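Example record

One chain of 147 residues, shown exactly as stored in the release files.
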Amino acid sequence: MATISRRGKNQWRARVRRGATTTSRTFSTRGRAEAWASQVEGEIADGEFAARGEAEATTLGVALDRYEQEIIPNKAPATRPAERRRVHALRRRPIALLSLSRIGGKDVAEFIRERQAEGAGANTIRLDLATISHLYTVARTAWACRT
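Predicted structure tokens for this chain:
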């Protein structure tokens, strides 16, 4: 069952509790809080709910730091320098400030448009996206981060 409560002038907290599963999140409007609670209740009922707390708290930039420390050293020696440069460049982008759970197609499309406007070639953009994609794969499998 979901509980919606006011947490200040412009904040609403939605808390969903079903059995041993409890999750909550804060929103700027009551409507958004209710919509999120309804979605989470549906996921729990369908057996599809996965806690996303870590993915919501971790920005792409922080995940890139961890990726550089844990994953790049295990890659082929010839690819490590280029991969490190790519990670450092990605960390400076606006998309790196977003949480892993918040990055969507619109954000990726904006990233691609930015790179194209800077004159980056199609293969360079593809490699940037491949790095981000691999980071998400590692986050899900090795870091148990549900996005």
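Notes: The domain at 55-141 is CATH 1.10.150 (DNA polymerase; domain 1).
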